[in-house]
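Exercise 7b. C-alpha cells:
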C-alpha cells in the first residue's frame, strides 16, 4: 500500500518595508541660507582683492607718470642759461619758460657798448672728446644775466646776436687749428657789462612746460621778450594732474611752478609741485631745482 506524501504548511515571512528618506523643507532652507552666506563672503573677499589690485595699479601708474615728468623737467632745467627761468599763469594755464644752454664758453676779451670793435676773443668751443660747437647767426650769446629780463630783452644789452665765427688758422672755427686756441666771434653790438667769471652762454630757443586741463605739455619757441601762455598744442608730458591753478603765478597754494629770485650769493631756485590723482587716489610730487651754472 503506497504511502501518501506529507504536505507541510508553508510559513509566510514578513518582508520589511523600507522607509523612504529625503530632505525636509527646513533642511533645504538651511542649506540655501548657508550657501548664500558663504557665497556672499567669498564674493566680498574677491571684491576686496580686486579693489586692492586696482588701487595698487592706479598708484603705480600715477607714480610712474609723475616720476617721468619730474625727471624730464629737472634734467632740462639743469641745463638752462642761468637766471633764464620765468613763470606766468592764470586760472586756466600756468607755464614755466627757460632758455636751454647750447654751449658754455670762456671769453678772454669782450666788446662793450659804444666800443668800435664788436669781436670777442673766446676759447675754442670744444669738449674733452673734441666735440666742436660753432656758433651761427641763429644763436645769441648771453653775458652776466642776473635777471630773466637780461636773457630775453635785447634792449638790456646782456645778449647779442652772433654775426660770424672765425679763427687765425684756416678761418673755420670747426677745425680747431688756431695756434693759440682762441677764436674770434663777432656780434651785432657790444655787451652792457663783463662777467666776473668771464662766462658766455650760447642759445637759440626757449622751452616751456605748461599745465592746463589737468595735463602738462612741452613747447619750444624762439626767444621773445614776452612770455607766451600756451593754451593749445605742444607735446603731452603727463596727465591726471589735479592741482588747483591760482589766478596768477604768485597766488595759489597748489600752483605747479615757483621760483626764488637770484641774489649775488646764489642762483635762482625753481620748484615744481604736482598732485597726480585718479578717482580717490592721490600722489604728490615736489622738487627743487638749482641751475648749476653761474653768471
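Sequence design result:
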Amino acid at each position: 500500500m503506497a504511502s501518501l506524501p506529507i504536505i507541510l504548511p508553508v510559513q509566510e515571512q514578513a518582508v520589511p518595508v523600507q522607509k523612504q528618506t529625503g530632505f525636509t523643507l527646513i533642511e533645504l532652507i538651511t542649506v540655501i541660507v548657508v550657501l548664500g552666506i558663504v557665497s556672499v563672503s567669498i564674493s566680498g573677499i574677491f571684491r576686496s582683492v580686486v579693489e586692492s589690485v586696482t588701487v595698487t595699479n592706479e598708484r603705480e601708474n600715477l607714480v610712474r607718470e609723475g616720476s617721468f615728468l619730474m625727471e624730464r623737467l629737472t634734467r632740462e632745467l639743469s641745463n638752462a642759461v642761468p637766471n633764464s627761468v620765468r613763470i606766468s599763469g592764470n586760472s586756466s594755464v600756468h607755464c614755466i619758460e627757460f632758455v636751454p644752454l647750447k654751449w658754455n664758453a670762456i671769453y678772454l676779451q669782450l666788446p662793450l657798448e659804444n666800443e668800435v670793435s664788436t669781436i670777442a676773443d673766446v676759447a675754442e668751443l670744444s669738449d674733452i672728446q673734441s666735440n666742436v660747437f660753432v656758433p651761427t647767426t641763429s644763436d645769441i650769446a648771453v653775458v652776466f644775466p642776473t635777471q630773466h629780463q637780461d636773457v630775453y630783452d635785447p634792449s638790456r644789452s646782456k645778449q647779442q646776436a652772433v654775426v660770424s665765427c672765425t679763427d687765425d688758422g684756416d678761418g673755420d672755427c670747426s677745425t680747431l687749428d688756431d695756434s693759440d686756441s682762441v677764436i674770434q666771434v663777432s656780434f651785432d653790438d657790444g655787451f652792457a657789462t663783463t662777467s666776473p667769471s668771464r662766462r658766455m652762454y650760447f642759445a637759440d630757443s626757449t622751452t616751456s612746460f605748461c599745465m592746463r586741463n589737468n595735463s602738462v605739455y612741452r613747447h619750444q619757441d624762439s626767444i621773445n621778450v614776452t612770455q607766451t601762455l600756451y593754451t593749445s598744442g605742444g607735446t603731452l608730458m603727463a596727465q591726471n594732474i589735479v592741482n588747483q591753478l591760482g589766478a596768477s603765478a604768485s597766488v595759489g597754494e597748489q600752483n605747479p611752478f615757483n621760483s626764488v629770485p637770484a641774489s649775488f650769493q646764489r642762483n635762482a631756485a625753481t620748484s615744481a609741485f604736482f598732485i597726480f590723482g585718479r578717482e580717490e587716489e592721490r600722489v604728490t610730487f615736489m622738487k627743487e631745482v638749482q641751475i648749476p651754472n653761474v653768471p
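Instructor comment: The helical segments are 25-77, 148-152. The longest strand covers residues 269-278.
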